[in-house]
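quick one, 152 residues, struct below
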Amino acid sequence: MNKNIILKFQIAMKSLKIFLYELFPNLMFEKANYRLEGDCNKCGDCCRFIYCLEPFSKLDFKLMRFFFPKYKRFKIIGEDSAGNLVLACSLIREDGLCPDYKNRPGICRAYPDPKKIYSGGKLYKRCSYKLISEKSFENYIQNSKNTIFKIL
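---
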């Protein structure tokens, strides 16, 4: 019975995390827009340190590897300060290239995903991609103040 309660609690917590992840961006007065600039310089850091917003736990990761054999190439190397898993690809070569590039999983194809980057992920120091804000931070603050005063 205790295992059932723990399992239900874990499912509830995952659902809550997903709900909050979807809800908070909608509470912003103005959504930040970004564009990606640059090209891949083949440093390989994106394969050596993969900040993963999903799966949420080590168990989720094990299940993903079981159901999707392509993900067996990844191993957990730690967690970031927010508790998200940090993965590494075991196939990456010294020169930063992937020997299985044509068959790489979706997590690799999607990099750099601006949504994940401004949700807490990172661009790496050696990465030649740049995430450019469409508006300055000061403009967002000013617009938020104006919106608050209109509401009040």
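The longest strand covers residues 74-79.
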